[in-house]
Amino acid sequence: MPETSLADRRAEIARAQRQVNLHPDQPERTERVLKLRRDYAAEKLAAYVNAVVAKAPPLTPAQRDRIAALLRGGR
Predict the structure, then answer these.
(1) What are the DSSP calls for the chain, one per residue?
(2) pLDDT band at 75 (very low <50, low <70, confident <90, very high)
(3) Distance (Å, rounded) from C-alpha 23 to C-alpha 19?
(4) Long-range pairs, 18-25, Cβ under 8 A, ≥24
(5) What is the pLDDT of residues 7-64, one digit of tens each?
(6) Are 45 and 67 in contact (CB under 8 A)?
(7) How far apart are alpha carbons 30 and 32 in whole angstroms?
(8) Is residue 19 a contact partner of residue 46, using CB atoms and an 8 Å limit?
(9) Domain ranges in the chain?
């Protein structure tokens, strides 16, 4: 099965958002949109990180730890 592209994910979010607009009294639809947006943001970030890492020289363990901490929400 082919991988879903970011454009496909954006289209899925738009379709789900339209359902929220049509049925605002159904909170599960809103929850689905929030989940789709969160998943899209994570995929977009992962794609960007993969592209940057592919071009960058190898990182030191300390540099990797610092970047991992940023992704975990630390400083």
Answers:
(1) -PPPPHHHHHHHHHHHHHHHHH-TT-HHHHHHHHHHHHHHHHHHHHHHHHHHHHHSPPPPHHHHHHHHHHHHT--
(2) low
(3) 6
(4) none
(5) 999 999 999 999 999 999 999 999 999 999 999 999 999 999 999 999 999 999 999 9
(6) no
(7) 5
(8) no
(9) 6-72
Tokens (6 digits) for 10: 């954006």
Instruction: Report yes or no: 43 and 73 within 8 Å, Cβ to Cβ.
Output: no
For residue 55, give both structure tokens.
Answer: 């071009």
What CA–CA distance (Å, rounded) separates 14 from 8? 10
